[in-house]
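Hi there,

I know you've been waiting on this one. I reran it after we fixed the sequence typo, so this is the corrected version. Both the input and the resulting structure follow.
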Amino acid sequence: MTLLQAIILGVVQGLTEFLPISSSGHLNVFPWLLGWEPLSEGMDVALHIGTLLALILFFFKDWVILVRAGYRQVIKRENTRDGRMFWYLVIATIPAGILSLILDHIAKAIIGDNLGLEMLTISFFLIVMGVILYYVDKNSKSTVGYKKISFRQTFLVGISQALAAAFPGVSRSGITMTTARALNIKRESAARLSFLLSMPITLAAVIFDIPHFVFSWELLAGILASFLVGIFVIKFLLNYLKKGNFKIFAIYRVIFGIIILVCILVR
């Protein structure tokens, strides 16, 4: 993989990891469409390191507050909103992580090295989840802000992450934001909750796959590109969702899914 290809993939990762349009789908489809070599496990780790660093930087103060409050709730019996939210996130992440591993192994066993089946799966779930995202977002009420999110809502949104591991093209951010909207969580709060829930599970995945990371300038370029673009996209999405909706992302998913399907048929 060339340095330019690594930078392009880093930009793609930074753009698609946080928008509800499937980063894994794009990272698998782009090399296939452009005739590049498939994404290596090392580059995949590098790109997720970049977006994980973007999350850590953007939400660092939030996590400091959450961790402190969670500690005080256990040690000093201080029952605060931030303390409860910390433990909501912890409890929701554990089963989501376990289920993600199980479903990921099942998906790999079914799809294997069948590139055509993988592209077809990505196309199918881009379209289906795009339609579902549009319908759910349009018909759900926006009655629950971030500070009012319950344990039940956090747990359901957290566990939904596992579906992204099973089905390429679903999108981790897409399924969590769709689930949050179905539970009447406001759009910006849905995105914030999705990002907070993604950090522990992404960190665990990076640590698990770190043996595949062997330093190279290409991997470093991928990290930097995904980090810088990721920071911009997180800020953009949170600001956009204060007044905007998910319609544009749903439409994009359907169009991109159809393009992939056409390419499959042509090839």
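Quick highlight: DSSP finds eleven helices and no strands in the chain.

Best,
R. S.
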